[in-house]
Amino acid sequence: MTTTTTYTVKGMTCGHCVSSVTEEITEVAGVTGVEVDLATGLVTVGSDGPVDAAAITAAVKEAGYEVVTPS
Ligand SMILES: [Cu+2]
């Protein structure tokens, strides 16, 4: 069963930003899928089990952006 969690990421402006964020989040343990909506900044993370929100925040930071509403 797949769980999805949505985050709002600040600072993405183009397709390159989207792929950077997608790439970094994909590397987080347990993540099975990442979907980014550039217009809204919404990032949906799919996983088979619970994923450490702090790890997602760190991955986004690694890409050069910021999670504004961890949920
Ligand atoms: Cu960009």
TrEMBL record:
Residues 3-68 form the HMA domain. Signal peptide: none annotated. SUPFAM superfamilies: HMA, heavy metal-associated domain. Coiled coil: none annotated. It comes from the Bacteria. Keywords: Metal-binding. Pfam families: HMA. CDD domains: HMA (cd00371). The keyword Protein biosynthesis does not apply. InterPro entries: Heavy-metal-associated_CS, HMA_dom, HMA_dom_sf, MerP/CopZ. This is Copper ion binding protein. It comes from Streptosporangium lutulentum. The lineage of its organism: Bacteria, Bacillati, Actinomycetota, Actinomycetes, Streptosporangiales.
